[in-house]
Design goal:
CATH architecture: Orthogonal Bundle
InterPro entries: HTH_MarR-typ, WH-like_DNA-bd_sf, WH_DNA-bd_sf
Radius of gyration: 18 Å
Number of strands: 2
Helix content: 55-70%
Shape: globular
CATH superfamily: Winged helix-like DNA-binding domain superfamily/Winged helix DNA-binding domain
Protein name: Winged helix-turn-helix transcriptional regulator
Strand content: 5-15%
Structural class: mainly alpha
Keywords: DNA-binding, Transcription, Transcription regulation
Number of helices: 6
């Protein structure tokens, strides 16, 4: 079986049982749930801006703007001016969203443990290294194709 197919099968399984889907709120679309999960996980470590969401999900600025406006309207996020540049708006989860962080983190930990059960730690680390290299190779390939199309 090709590597790409194996990755696709795993990816499909992970999408179907995604921790973001455990958010049972009717006021969030599936995409908003994924964005909220990303916001909750990333804001633990760093400041987050709209550009980060555009890059992570490979979606255009107007689409992200619409997603964030609805999430703000529904009380999941708020935006505040960045200290270094008032034109930039930091995205922050509200208390309503914060209440979902721990259950999502717990779900991710359970899923991860189930996926790697019975696999030696060294093999898991090697797999991560190989997958990162595949991502880098793929990015180079896509960038090269993109630059050829622009000529």
């Amino acid at each position: 079986m090709h590597v790409g197919r194996l990755i696709r099968i795993l990816s499909h399984s992970m999408r179907r049982h995604n921790p973001a889907e455990m958010i049972e709120n009717k006021d969030l679309t599936s995409m908003q749930k994924h964005v909220l999960k990303f916001i909750l996980l990333e804001t633990i470590h760093r400041d987050l801006y709209q550009k980060d969401i555009e890059e992570e999900f490979q979606i255009r600025k107007p689409t992200v703007t619409g997603i964030l406006q609805l999430m703000e309207k529904n009380g999941y996020i708020y935006r505040e001016c960045a200290k270094q540049d008032a034109r930039l708006k930091r995205i922050l989860p509200t208390e309503k969203a914060e209440s979902l962080r721990q259950p999502i983190l717990h779900s991710i930990e359970e899923d991860e443990a189930a996926m790697i059960r019975g696999i030696p730690k060294e093999d898991v680390e090697l797999c991560k290294q190989v997958l990162w290299q595949m991502c880098a190779n793929r990015k180079k390939m896509c960038n090269k194709k993109d630059s050829n199309y622009k000529k």
